[in-house]
Write a structure and sequence with these properties.
globular; 199 residues; alpha+beta
């Protein structure tokens, strides 16, 4: 990771008197995530059988059924976060994984300042885009979500399944969400974020 280009962009997004203590590029952990925040009720949907949904998920991986997706995530990846609908983890997860994605690649940046946890998203680029598109995406980075330091209960990096670099952020409302980096990448930025949040 090119530490300087991300740090410079994050520095422009925080308040002028706010000091960035640590930052990391990371992805939301794979697996069962917190329930989404409450939304206006759509028209009633017929219920689906979970076994049938799982079978269809295996046979037609591009098709999506909520219950089947959640069971496949639980079995394949484990638990990536917990929290009631509307909890801090629920709102953060929704901010990073909207219900209608635009199918472009975006980076997630975590930053800890002396006041808050700031979660940013870069602009979208198409898969296999060139360097110019990546620079444009970095210039379009914006704050997706933030929480005051008082809302963070703890943060730690530890093992999850085969990945020794999973950052778990616990919020004071009892919810939590995890972030990971690929196994081949250094876990040092995540450990720095955890240390800054725990200080």
């Amino acid at each position: 990771m090119d530490e300087t280009r991300y740090r410079d962009r994050i520095g422009r997004l925080v308040e002028p008197d706010e000091r960035v203590l640590a930052h990391a590029k990371a992805d939301v952990g794979q697996g069962l995530a917190p329930a989404p925040p409450p939304e206006p009720e759509p028209a009633a949907e017929p219920s689906r059988r979970t076994v049938g949904s799982v079978l269809l998920n295996v046979l037609l991986p591009l098709a999506s059924w909520d219950r089947g997706d959640r069971l496949v995530d639980l079995i394949g990846w484990g638990i990536a976060g917990r929290g009631a609908p509307g909890s801090a983890a629920s709102r953060l997860h929704r901010a990073l994984r909207p219900p209608r994605p635009d199918l472009q690649v975006r980076e997630t940046l975590l930053a800890v300042t002396d006041r808050r946890l700031v979660v940013c998203r870069t602009g979208g680029v198409k898969l296999l885009a060139g360097r110019e598109a990546e620079e444009r995406a970095l210039a379009e980075t914006a704050v997706a979500w933030s929480a005051t330091r008082a809302e963070i209960a703890s943060a730690r990096v530890g093992w999850h399944r085969l990945n020794p670099k999973r950052l778990r952020i616990d919020f004071t409302d009892g919810s939590w969400l995890s972030f990971t980096v690929p196994i081949a990448e250094s876990g040092r930025p995540l450990r720095e974020v955890a240390a800054a949040l725990s200080a």
